Amino acid sequence: MEPRATTARVKQSAAPGSKVVAVDRPLAVVVGNPNAGKTTLFNQLTGQNARVGNYPGVTVERRVGVIRFDGETRTGHDEPLSVELVDVPGAYSLSARSAEEQIALLAVLGFEENPRPDLAVVVLDAGQLIRNLYLALQLIELEVPVVLALNMIDEVSDDPPSPEAVGALFGVPCVATNARKGAGIAELRSAIYAALRDRARGRVAVDYPAPLRQDLDALVSALPAAWRSSAGRDRALALWSLASIEADDELSGIEPGLRERVLAVREAAGSRDLEEEIILSRYRFLDQHAPSLYAQVERRPPKRRASDRVDRILLHPVLGFLIFIGVMLVVFQSLFTWADPAISLIEDTFSWVSTLLMAHLPAGVVRDLLIQGVIGGVGNVVVFLPQILLLFLFIGILEDSGYMARVAYLMDRIMKALGLHGRAFVPMLSGFACAVPAVLATRTMERRRDRLLTMMVVPLMTCSARLPVYTLVIGALFPPTKVFGWVPVQGLMMIGMYLFSVIVTLVVAGVLGKTAIKGRRVPLILELPPYRLPGVRTTLRMMWERSTTFLREAGTIILACTIVLWALLSFPRLPETGAATAAASPAAAIVAGGSAPDQPTPEAAADEARALAHSYAGRLGHLIEPALAPLGFDWKIGVGLIGAFAAREVFVSTMGLVYGVGKVDADQATPLRERIRAETRADGAPVYRPVVGLSLMVFFALACQCMSTLAVVKRETRSWRWPAFMFGYMTALAWFASFLVYQGGRLLGF
Ligand code: GDP
Ligand code: MG
């Protein structure tokens, strides 16, 4: 952990095969709490010449720029001409609760493949000084050289903290800035220059309780030799690791030996909460010194009064709640209805391109692969964009304005009872529209555990793709009669399915939160930032970043799955149809996001049904029939379930093909409804009785039949473990629930 004035890093120059050039340039990181103004300050310091890359091994964006010191007066040769500056993700502390915080931690301490920085520019929000100073304190305890930027100084005009006093607290330079207006930037540059030249480090002496100090002494001996450089740092690192190791931690910066020691010390502490002791000691230190940091010593830290007045309305138990419901209705409505025209446009465009290619390319496997596999697969990916863009537009506005923190505050009591975070509300609500944007929306949560838990249950919400399936089944199998003369049975069934999904989601969240995704109790910092006008550029940028990563990473998986499904449904072909027929595999066309070819003649429809039965998917349907029989399903439903993996609503069209009724639109499924009612077993008994329909709907409500959801969970967790877990538990749950419904129904004589 020895710091160096300059970090020699090796860069590959652009031309392949050319020589490797060593660049000797110091490295500085911009760190601070989320929303402290890091990125704005970074842009001010580096101008517009930032390069964008990724952190090693992960897909979080890493923004790098350069500050050139051309104006500074030089006194010797050993002085920096320029410094490389990296914009690190926001973090409240070095305890690494969220993925972003983990990356920040690794980047600041120079762990794993990150080069160790020579300087940390800590951006402080002057209006939330104490909480912001917490991170600075941790860094100075770790002897990282620090320059403080006291940002947003314009927002605390009535009693601003004094930069001299803030700097004096730790013995480090501190400059007041307004990153938005560019005030104080030149001074900050000079301070960075001087800090790199002088290599000075701050100091801080938090008064930790005696028992805690003893625990730390026990840990110091377990530190890796490379870390044992000075007494102060030993203690600091031990403190840091005590407060940051979680049982399921994947931080490879921590040596296994140290991890075991930390866990042993924690065990020995019994009921004492070491993390809390550490945190409280640090805050006690900051609180003690806080009054001296403000320009007028006798006054309390300034409040942001306008925000407080607004909060009196927005957090009001009745009025605030009504406004909250209104805001959430708008978000929900947008995903459900406003996205629709764009989705239709995308679908129409893709089917237009397919038709065009169909007419101009020679018939054959290559054409089918191109149209149904590739173009259809791309369509399956792009079709999510309207909802993702809209959701992130709203999340951007909600986050940037400060309202998202209020949502968390309002919902926290209810959500906490279920083991969920208050911020899980927006993703869960979005789950009613589609799980894919909902999973992406879990990014607003800071803790990895909160995110994971929400991600694992969001696909249980009744997404809009389940609606066509419910509509078909209810329409076909339940009578359009009314109970009590006015309550329609079919409508009641639909409401029942929605209620069912909400209850199951909450119960599963409660169970998973206590078992598979257990979390250590963490003191929740629920912070209410002041209201601000949302920045248009930040929001647009976030929408852009989220959509492009989705397209690039989840998109490739969805595309690959579509091609696999296409192959399953298209091969092997019936000998007599072969490649020559016009619509060689309509099932594949549907799975690939297009629509089936126009209404075929009855003979052609029967051909299609035979071709489908002959395909791998058809055989697979037969293969899984024994597993489905106890649920009341036959192999034809099995084929439908396989097709539904592309997207649940595809079930309807696949069933249309299985039963040879040709093209089926979800809202105009009359022929298919009739056909389903008429379907009989060998003994003449109807295949579909209401209890089979109920079993089928329960299966659809609980099973994870959505490759896009799995793809996006893989992308967000960066491992196959969690999508596999999700698929496993949901399928098992679906099977058992359907089993109970069907067998129970049979016992009762339905
Ligand atoms: P980050 O999350 O730390 O990267 O924060 P950003 O740089 O994205 O800034 C968050 C918001 O604060 C944006 O809307 C900025 O325009 C705004 N902002 C940044 N610095 C200042 C400042 O000094 N004064 C004011 N009033 N707003 C600022
Ligand atoms: Mg930023």
Name every ligand kind in the structure: guanosine-5'-diphosphate, magnesium ion
Average of pLDDT: 80
Given as residue ranges, the uncertain stretches (5+ residues, pLDDT < 50) are 1-22, 297-303, 578-584
How many DSSP-defined strands?
Answer: 11
Helical fraction equals 55-70%
Number of helices: 29
Specify the overall morphology: elongated
Order of strands across the main sheet:
4-5-6-3-7-8-9
Instruction: Report the major sheet.
Output: 7 strands, mixed
Strand and helix layout:
Blueprint: E1 8-12, E2 20-24, E3 27-32, H1 38-46, E4 51-54, E5 61-68, E6 82-87, H2 99-109, E7 119-125, H3 129-141, E8 146-151, H4 163-170, E9 174-176, H5 185-198, H6 210-220, H7 231-244, H8 256-268, H9 274-293, H10 305-314, H11 319-360, H12 365-382, H13 385-401, H14 403-417, H15 425-431, H16 435-441, H17 448-457, H18 467-477, E10 482-483, E11 487-488, H19 489-514, H20 536-570, H21 586-591, H22 602-614, H23 616-628, H24 635-643, H25 650-658, H26 670-678, H27 690-702, H28 707-717, H29 721-747
Parallel strand pairs: 3-6, 3-7, 7-8, 8-9
Antiparallel strand pairs: 1-2, 4-5, 5-6, 10-11
Helix pairs in contact: 3-9, 6-7, 7-9, 11-12, 11-13, 12-20, 13-16, 13-20, 15-16, 16-28, 17-19, 18-19, 18-26, 18-27, 19-27, 20-28, 23-24, 24-25, 27-29, 28-29
Residues 32, 34-40, 90, 151-152, 154-155, 178-180, 400, 532, 535, 538 line the site of guanosine-5'-diphosphate.
